[in-house]
Structures are given as structure tokens and as C-alpha cells.
Amino acid sequence: QVHLAQSGGGSVQAGGSLTLSCEGRAYTLSYYCMGWFRQTPGKEREGVAVLDTEGSTTYADSVKGRFTISKDNAKNTLYLEMSSLKLEDTAMYYCAADWPCGVGDKWFYWGQGTQVTVSS
């Protein structure tokens, strides 16, 4: 079973940067399609970025050019580097894993979530 342990996040001023981490425990993440999602109260969880097993990436239009998804197979860890953060990036962020890639927010394994708060 894949256990995803998230770290990073926190509070940052608009325009700043943060990096989220998602460590795979008990299984190797290189076998899985990986994704980052975010959710704010009262709204549905939305996809932010996806990294498939061949290294292809996709991003939500709202984060293109500002966020980068990557994976370090040696550390078995997924990352989300976030820069030029905006107030609207404030949300709980989740990593997810599945094979094949999940559809929408239907992914099998989820991290515990980490809060990102962007202030003016």
C-alpha cells in the first residue's frame, strides 16, 4: 500500500515561493502517475499538476508558468515548486498517486494534505 507523507506549505506573502513535498513510503513512486490537487472550503478539489510515469507534465491554466511538478526517484519524493504565489493560491494541497493516472479527482492514494496560505 502506498502511504504518501506530505511536508512543506505554510504562510507566504503574495509573490513569494514555497515548495511542497510528498514522500512515498512502503512503495516506489516511480511506478505511479502522481498529481497535486488543492481545495478551499466549500469548493471541489481541483487538479493543479500531474506527472506521469514517462515524465510528461500537465498543469492547470491558473498555475502554468508559476508551478513546477517534479519527482526525485532516489528520494522517492514528489515536489511542487510554487512561485509568484497569488492570494487565490491559498488552499489545502494534496498529493495523489495512481496507475493509470486518475480521472478528475478520482485517484486511489492521497496524502494527508498541507495548508498553503498566501497573504497580501
Please give the share of residues in helix.
under 10%
Biggest sheet record: 7 strands, mixed
How many helices? 0
* Run of helices and strands: EEEEEEEEEEE
Radius of gyration: 13 Å
Span between termini = 40 Å
How much strand content do the residues show? over 45%
Give the CA-based shape: globular
Quantity of strands, as a count: 11
Query: Would you tell me the structural class of the helices and strands?
Result: mainly beta
The average pLDDT is 95
Low-pLDDT stretches are none
Question: Secondary structure elements and their pairing?
Answer:
Blueprint: E1 3-8, E2 10-13, E3 18-25, E4 33-39, E5 46-51, E6 57-59, E7 67-72, E8 77-82, E9 91-98, E10 109-110, E11 114-119
Parallel strand pairs: 2-11
Antiparallel strand pairs: 1-3, 3-8, 4-5, 4-9, 5-6, 7-8, 9-10, 9-11
Structural write-up:
This protein is mainly beta. It has strands at residues 3-8, 10-13, 18-25, 33-39, 46-51, 57-59, 67-72, 77-82, 91-98, 109-110, 114-119. Strands 2, 4, 5, 6, 9, 10 and 11 form a seven-stranded mixed beta sheet that branches.
What would the keywords be for this entry?
mainly beta; 7-stranded mixed sheet; single chain; 120 residues
Short description:
With 120 residues, the protein is mainly beta. It contains no helices and eleven strands. The protein is 0% helix and 52% strand.
